[in-house]
Amino acid sequence: AIKESLVKLQELLDGREDIFKVLDWKEGVLYIRDPLFLFYLRWGGGVRDMVLFNLALDRISGFKIRHDIDYRENPDFDSDYFNDMVGVTKHSRLKKERVVLFVEKSQSGYIQTKPIHTSQRTVSRDSADGSMIIEIEVVVNPELISQLLGFGKGVRVMSPRSLADKMCDIHRTCAAQYSTL
């Protein structure tokens, strides 16, 4: 279904001179010729207000030609749009924050070699127990929370307090689900 939808989209794009060719099909394989194309598939813009919102690529079931709406560039989007976040969720209420994390030895090697975000900086290391404290400058969004939860007890949020409280609430709820076993 996705292939058919993308083929329909390519047919639409081929008929417009102001939009570049972004797809190629060769031997049944899809090639993306411009990386921003996935952004436009993943995100949409409000027709009147140009507000960015999240649309799941894997849920596209088709496209409809709208001759009454002209394509417009969104002046609020630039190539740095995703630089301050993990994942893709970002809206006007989410602002970049300094997130400080305590990392236990069990996760420190992994996080040191595979940073959570490009802004990651090591604040301190404890050579006695192998732990470290790191900080990142990111938008606190669902994808960041999910990634932090994936580290289990190996990572603890030190700040901001709002994120630490959210993580604590999630862990309490999870623990309660297992209390009846």
Commentary on this structure:
With 181 residues, this protein is an alpha+beta fold. It has five helices and eight strands. The chain has helices at 2-14, 36-42, 105-113, 142-150, 161-178, and strands spanning 23-26, 29-32, 43-45, 52-54, 96-103, 121-125, 132-139, 155-159. It has a four-stranded antiparallel sheet with strand order 6-7-5-8. The chain has a two-stranded antiparallel sheet with strand order 1-2. A two-stranded antiparallel ribbon has the order 3-4. Strand 1 (23-26) and strand 2 form a beta hairpin. The longest helix has 18 residues, at 161-178. The model is unreliable at 17-23, 29-35 and 42-48 (pLDDT under 50).
Give the topology.
Layout: H1 2-14, E1 23-26, E2 29-32, H2 36-42, E3 43-45, E4 52-54, E5 96-103, H3 105-113, E6 121-125, E7 132-139, H4 142-150, E8 155-159, H5 161-178
Antiparallel strand pairs: 1-2, 3-4, 5-7, 5-8, 6-7
How much of the polypeptide forms β-strand, as a percent range?
A: 15-25%
Question: Can you give the helix content as a percent range?
Answer: 25-40%
Shape: elongated
Q: Please state the oligomeric state of the protein chains shown.
A: single chain
Put simply, the count of helices is: 5
Record field, number of beta strands: 8
Biggest pleated-sheet summary: 4 strands, antiparallel
Structural class given helices, strands, pairing? Answer: alpha+beta
In round numbers, the mean pLDDT is: 77
N-to-C SSE string, H for helix and E for strand: HEEHEEEHEEHEH
Low-confidence stretches at least 5 residues in length (pLDDT < 50)?
Answer: 17-23, 29-35, 42-48
